[in-house]
Amino acid sequence: MPKVSHDYVKRKRNVILEAALSVCKDKPLYEITMRDIIRASGVSQGGIYRYYSDLDEILVEIINQANADADYKKDVDAIIENNAAPKEMLEKLFTFLGEYIKENLSTVGKIHFELTILFANNPDRQKKILPNITENESGQYLIKRILDTIHKGISLGIFQPEVSIEDLFTFIMASIDGIVRDVVLHKCYGMFQNEQILIDETRLMNTLCKSVQALLGCK
Predict the structure, then answer these.
(1) How crowded is the C-beta side of 43, counted as CA atoms within 13 Å?
(2) Is 13 exposed, middle or buried (0-12, 13-18, 19+ CB in 10 A)?
(3) Distance CA 203, CA 64 (A)
(4) Does 3 score more than 70 pLDDT?
(5) Of the candidates 28, 3, 6, 212, which has an alpha carbon nearest to the alpha carbon of residue 120?
(6) Burial of 3 (0-12, 13-18, 19+ CB in 10 A)
(7) Rounded to the nearest 5°, which phi and psi values hold at 159?
(8) Cα of 83 vs its chain's centroid, Å
(9) HEC letters along the chain
(10) Do residues 140 and 72 lie in contact, with contact meaning Cβ atoms separated by under 8 Å?
(11) Residue among 66, 56, 59 at smallest CA distance from 139
């Protein structure tokens, strides 16, 4: 291959990544093949291997890009700084999480959900992909700030938990995971198509917040 500029290579790789991301929106991550990306990008089979060694290298870049786009620590800090009352702080944090999920469901949410399925069914690919993923800590950071807010409310006597803190934290984590899973299944896969079932990220997170507040003895 003749020598080409760094910018040319970068543009070509971006074309391939954008095509791969479009494929991810229409097809489960664990079913994507290199042929799908070749077809979507318009790059020849020989051409695509000049920029990526295999499918998993492309998937790693997609996942890392999604993780980079999911950095919202500053938004969480702004909520904490602008809300002094623990009860109001909890409401704002849960609302933010619901709105974030709604805005990023088709990319970050779907990709990470399907990644767990890919790893469960392909342990060898997990060993290959996982070490190269740049972890995003925003989700863990948000949960930590929620837990810090609860501890603060308890220390101030504002919250008087009706269950153990350990059980409450487990309930919060399991509920958030369940909401994310069901929203992805509903909006990305068409499950739970029932007029009596309302799958709305923000409303579900607000309901979870009210449940947490009730368990914290809020009036």
Answers:
(1) 24
(2) middle
(3) 29
(4) no
(5) 28
(6) exposed
(7) -105, 135
(8) 25
(9) CCCCCHHHHHHHHHHHHHHHHHHHHHCCHHHCCHHHHHHHHCCCHHHHCCCCCCHHHHHHHHHHHHHHHCCCHHHHHHHHHHCCCHHHHHHHHHHHHHHHHHHHHHHHHHHHHHHHHHHHHCHHHHHHHHHHCCCCCHHHHHHHHHHHHHHHHHHCCCCCCCCCHHHHHHHHHHHHHHHHHHHHHHHHHCCCCCCCCCCCHHHHHHHHHHHHHHHCCCC
(10) no
(11) 66
| Alpha-carbon span 176 to 181, nearest angstrom | 9
State yes or no: pLDDT of 147 exceeds 70.
yes
Measure CA of the first residue to CA of the last residue in the chain; give whole Å. Answer: 70
What average pLDDT does the structure give for the chain? 89
Confirm whether pTM is higher than 0.90.
no
Do 176 and 114 contact (CB within 8 A), yes or no?
no
Can you tell me the distance from the alpha carbon of 69 to that of 107, in angstroms, rounded to the nearest whole number? 10
Q: How many CA atoms lie within 13 A of 46 on its CB side?
A: 1
